[in-house]
Design brief:
The complex is a heterodimer of chains A (about 375) and B (about 260). Chain A is mainly alpha-helical and about 375 residues long. Chain B has a single domain, classed as P-loop containing nucleotide triphosphate hydrolases (Rossmann fold), CATH 3.40.50.
Amino acid sequence: MSALYERVQRWTVWPMLWKEFLQLRRDRLTFAMMTLLPAMQLLLFGYAVQTDVRRLPTVVVDESRSSESRALIRVLANTDNFTFVAALPDRASAKRWIERGAARVALVIPPEYQRNIRSGNTGVAQMLIDAADPQSSGAAISGAQLAAQARGAQLLASQYKIRPPVEIRVRPWYNPAQKSATFIVPGIVGILLTITMTLIASAAIVKERERGTLEQLIVTPIGRTSLMLGKLVPFVLVGYVQMTVVLALGVIFFDIPIMGSLVLLYALALVFIVASLGVGLLISTVARSQVQAMQLGYFFMLPNILLSGYIFPRAAMPEPAQWIGAALPLTWFLDILRGVLLKGVGMRDLWTQLGVLSALSFVLLVVSVRRFSKTLD
Amino acid sequence: MNDPERVVGPAVVQTRALRKVYGELVAVHGLDLEIARGEVFGLLGPNGSGKTTTIRMLCGLVVPTSGSANVAGLDVATNTEGVRRRIGYMSQRYGLYDELTVAENLRFYSSVYGLVGHDRERRLAAHVESLGLGSRLKQRAGTLSGGWKQRLALACATAHHPDLVFLDEPTAGVDPAARRTFWETIYQLAREGTTILVTTHYMDEAERCQRLAFLSRGHLIGLGTPAEIVKQFNANTIEDVFVMLQQRDEADEAVLSVARPS
């Protein structure tokens, strides 16, 4: 018993941890950067990265000039997908507006529009869309279809007393307003954690190498595991501080709901933070300078942004891209973040994520410790 | 007394055909060396002669290509960590943490060597006293002058009372007064039974060593007391020997580069 106590007491991880925490406390600038920069990035990206397209600038060529044409314009305006910026006399000028980018959509209502409706035929209006950007043209198309259906149903009901025979009532759960911020901001929390955790861990050992202290550390009897753990643990704390700041801002500025248990989220975040730090430590054992470590870190960022499902849905990707995505810790943490925050999912549905992240952390740490050799060769 | 290979007491360092090759370059040709307990032993030679590589092999920082090294009674290759517990090492770059204070640097390094609790505090207090670091304990290491940094680095390398201390060019860039106090400390340590292995460029320092080994392009070319070395090379001072060797190296280099057209 006392032999065990002795061994624990003399374990070299304690002085290593003490030193690392002391350095972290002294290095206020780094600490501030690790928490304030992500906060600023969240605010910036949260507002900038919005995939829902609203209020497309639209011009109208109303050749019908009737109560029916005005009713159609009103219905379209109500969808919120269009903002009417000008009324133009002919198609040629509408084309010019679209060409110079002043309008994305042109609505053309022909002279016979009202006459056709009143005589029991179909009133046809035309919508010209600048479809270079599929996302905004998609918004225009769905807005047009929605408006036509709505107006059609109104007319059937008022003129012929006919009700539509079939209707599907859509209930968008978890994000009823269909705001992309609700989906993206939890993702930003994950991506910011990935970036800072990987970068600070990748600089950790390289920094000692550059300052000449690594050589000194290596000749001491300090163990490889102690060295790695000593580097790792203080950064876990930094990760939690950062996550808290970013999450709080997400709740305050983007109305991110917290449907599930925060305790569960924080507990599961541990394996993710350790996995991200593990990637950084692995980089640290390869890189010879801080610049190199930084470059490798950024190299790791790109697949995280593109393949993790942070913005682009993984279901739409070809299989090889999905496999790469499955190897990234962020992919699994996004499930946890969105699950707990937006859906209020409990532990019952997150065992897979926990399992994969634990396995990734374990492998990354073991490989890092193995790769780190206590020689200068 | 005339035998330069004489060893006083049991050997603390013992190498057999120790050799290190980096690609084409042979940094150290088979080196045979014995250093006795309590000796102040100097490793001399021009830049690139293999001094630092030798020291690094003895500390287990660099793995030898072939040959063996015994340090403090243990085989460096098979019991590297055991060797590390028994030695102290002070590199050219000192290896201090700038943002930690003098006391914190000392505390960190002594704890890493397994010193804990009251035992550590008692030893550190005595150590600080004997090295005269008391007035600087609360100062950040990064703000110390060269001489004080050197003294702190030595303190960190010796707080755990190692059998043997390696000093790799410890006084580079330090003023003469600081160098003198540094050497007084070295002798103090040697009197207490610590073996000192020091590399240096300064000839006055070389003359302070009890025995010297002269390295030239990885070969051991001279071994003995400073007086013996001077006699062996038919020179007046150690400095003359040094300059002579360096000139010979440069001449050889010139001949080699002519013989080996690139």
